[in-house]
Amino acid sequence: MAVPDWEGLEEFSMVAQTESFTAAAQRLNVSTSHVSRQVQALEDRLGVKLLARTTRKVRLTDLGAEYLARANELMATLDALNQSIAGDFADLKGVLRVSAAGPFAETVVLPKLLEFVSQNDGVTLEADFNNRNVDLIAEGYDFALRYGQLASSSLVARKLATHQLACVASEDYLERYGEPSHPSDLRHHSCLVSNNDTWIFCDPSSKKNIRVRVKGRLRTNSIPVMLDAADKGFGIAYSPIENLKLLLDAGRVRRILMGFEDHSRSHWIVYPDRRLLPRHVRAAINYLLESMAENRL
After folding, report:
1. What is the pLDDT of residues 185-197, one digit of tens each?
2. pLDDT tens per residue, range 73-107
3. Where are the alpha helices (DSSP H) in 180-267?
């Protein structure tokens, strides 16, 4: 029986994207040996080398790059045809590997992902919650949730939600050090710094940004640690209001500098080239975007 011409295309495309047989196997949820055999068989049928292999990296040959471009077009067309016939959420299968961090991801996004998985018996979810800026391709993640301004990269970014920030401090801290009346006053206060020590506010009259370089007694990328420090009077916190909700509702901290808050911060879904997304990953991303449309400005 003749081998179908398209056999091995998916494996070849994923190796080209990840530059690794191991990472490609993780993304496709198959063994590394399976990926290697499929790519080798494809090269044997074509009679050309598509990939140049070294001990450290796998890269496309010139012929491989040309073949990949045509193969991607073919697979995108085939995928679109399959979805139009079967429907976006019919018979989805595969592992969904997601990297995320923070209360919003855990309390808002994860329940939405669980809804998606519950509607698709063939999909399983692996959610890794950490503050590390993971390499999606090298580490085999399908997509990540990232917050704030994104660095320039080759990843596709889709806005998931827009957040209102709030500046808060405990009554104990404000009694000891006074309450700032303008964002520029924060230069003389102890601020709880996360990944960025430049806080952005908005002038309510001119609508122009106010940038303040802050410092303080604590620097951490952990939201729980930052909340505990604010509760204990270590300094002023500036964070999306949903992160601060429990402390605010309990009266443990009070909002300050109201009217100056920046309302432009967003959560983003970032993922590699959309043409190479497995069907269940594309469906999960679309499900999140559609179900959280009201959270975006």
Report:
1. 999 999 999 878 9
2. 676 666 656 655 555 555 788 889 999 887 788 88
3. 223-231, 241-249
- Taking the whole predicted model, whether its pTM rises above 0.90 is answered as no
Calculate the dihedral angle through the C-alpha atoms of 15, 20, 23, 26, rounding to the nearest 10 degrees: 50
Is the four-CA dihedral 103, 105, 108, 113 of positive or negative sign?
negative
Residue 19 domain-assigned?
yes
Give residue for tokens 């106010």.
210
DSSP string, 137-187: HHHT-SEEEEESSPPP-SSEEEEEEEE-EEEEE-HHHHHHH---SSGGGGG
Residue 41 sits in a domain whose CATH number is: 1.10.10.10
| In contact, 284 and 123? CB cutoff 8 Å | yes
Q: How many residues does the chain have?
A: 297
Number of domains in the chain: 3
